[in-house]
Amino acid sequence: MNRICIYPKDISMITGKSYRQSLRIYNAIKRKHNKEPHQLVTLDEVCQYLGLNPDKVKETV
C-alpha cells in the first residue's frame, strides 16, 4: 500500500534540503491550503507546491 500523507522528512528526501528547510516547506503548504494543525499534507499537495511530477515522486517515496 502506498502512503498518501507526506512528512517533512519525506520532503527532505525528495528535495535534498535539510530537515529544517523541509519543515518550512511543509508548514507553507499547510498554510496555503488552510489546514488545521491535526491535518496532514498529501503527496499531491507537495507536488503541486513544488511543481514536481507526482509519478516521479511516487517512485522515490
Detail the topology: elements first, then pairings.
Layout (H helix, E strand, L loop, with lengths): L4 E2 L1 H8 L3 H14 L8 E2 H8 L3 H7 L1
Antiparallel strand pairs: 1-2
Task: Write a structural description.
The structure is a single chain. The longest helix is centred in the middle third of the chain and has 14 residues, at 19-32. The protein has one domain. Helix content is 61%, strand content 7%. It is globular. It is built from 4 helices and 2 strands. A two-stranded antiparallel sheet has the order 1-2. The chain is mainly alpha-helical and 61 residues long. The mean pLDDT is 91.
H/E element string? Answer: EHHEHH
DSSP summary: helix tally: 4
The major β-sheet equals: 2 strands, antiparallel
Query: How many domains?
Result: 1
Derived structural class: mainly alpha
Query: What percentage of the residues does DSSP assign to strands (E)?
Result: 5-15%
Lateral strand order in the biggest sheet: 1-2
How much is the average pLDDT? Answer: 91
Short key terms for the protein model shown above:
61 residues, mainly alpha, two-stranded antiparallel sheet, 4 helices, globular
Give a short synopsis of this structure.
By secondary structure, the protein is mainly alpha-helical. The chain has one domain.
